[in-house]
Amino acid sequence: MLLDAHPSDVSSAKLPSFKDCTIHADARVLIVDDSATMRGLIAWHLKSVGLTNLAFAQDGIAALAAAEAVTPDLVIADLAMPNMDGFELCRRLRADPRTADVPILIQTGSDQNEDRARSFEVGASDLIAKPIESREMIARVRVHLERRSLINHLQEYQRRMEAELTLARSMQHSLLPGPGIIGWLKRQLPIDIASTYAPSIDLGGDIWGLESLGHSRIRLYSADFTGHGVGAALNTFRLHTFLASGAAEAEDPAEWLAKINEFLCSILDVGQFATVFAAVVDLAAGDIAYSLAACPAPLLRTGSTAPFQLLSGAGYPVGITRAADYETVRAPFPPGSMLVLYSDALIETPDPPDAILSPERLGDCLSGVLSVDAAIETMLAPLRQPHVPPPTDDLTVVALSHRGAAQ
Amino acid sequence: MDIRTTTDGSTFQAHMSGRLSFSDHQAFRVLMQDIEKSKAKACVFDLSQLTSVDSSGLGMFIIAAEAAKSGNWHLTLKGATGQVNQLLYLAKFDKLLTLVG
User: Fold this and answer.
1) Contact flag B21-A351 (C-beta cutoff 8 Å)
2) Which residue among A398, A401, B43, B76 is least enclosed by CB atoms within 10 Å?
3) Domain limits at A278?
4) How much is the ipTM here?
């Protein structure tokens, strides 16, 4: 191994210390060279700028063992070495997930074009010209350690955000009626309920709920806040808290919507709103009262054999204007009847005008469906085809049916 | 969404095409600034080439309407068809904004 540069030739002492910049001086650098002199020279240069956390290997095999033991932040390797050369070392480091991202600097002669090209092909991050020029080597080490440090920070940030979003999705899911309340309602009332809720990857603004109003009556609602992400998700918590406080005490769906509208107008930013469906089902009387606030048209089957009808109608979204008024519509809901609600992701996947499903098509799909579970399966099946992209927004579907006489 | 704007001094026109959605917030903010800078007294959003809109897109129309009110200019949404037109009427935006065919 040639030794063309001598420590006395270099001016590394004039460079700023690593302690002065954003790079941690304790960055671990693995030096791989079969020449003890070269290992010593490189180490001398690195120590002169404050990098003292160094490990050494005399060939590729020893380097792999050292990399496993110390998890380096940077590797400086020679090419020609006994047992395992620098090319193979590069390949092995890149193939191992633990070292796939570690910067690897390869020492090559400036006239060895074939080696230089091959080094990049096997995964080298950069080259260091031989004979080693101190300032160039330190500059390259600095660039790659900085890059490594930034990537580490970003990866750490991403990991933290993913963990936070997973927690947030779980918390948002917990706002929805769980098996406990649904099971209790099914025991108290002649109803069947099935639902599905698939939160989008970056959170969304869907929420639905149901509560017993006594005397065989049940309130069912679904709401979808504008936008995606944390803001939309937080708005579902605001609405849930408002409803849980009992502040929207009103039997009539239109009056109930008006109270929610008043509340949301007072807290939402301009441009934010929610589309809502609100209903009160009276199982003893066999009827339903509902009000629409710009939601996708729910589907209603009156009795067990009738076709599904769209409950279409215009309505102001809640949270835009205090001047909004809402209308309650009544319809029969005898035993065998079924009501199906869904969020717009169901009819906006892929984006319109290419969406697979439309409210009308949903009505056709559901024709003759026997149970609430079958209704949900039937609605989701077209979106589960392999060529269909996943929805980009929360997807909620809720089905409620009248089972028959009260128990 | 793609957007092309023209102005003749008194009327600012924004021709929108494609899908207006959540991801267009930044483009929409720039559009609002451009309208303000133009000092136009009327602004027309030409929606005839807009193929679809999501609820965030509808929210942007509300933001524009509020900006028009505070900036003392008039906003018209023109030529919406298909899903865009359906959603505008579903949400009673014909009562909140000026829609023309």
Assistant:
1) yes
2) B76
3) 175-402
4) 0.93
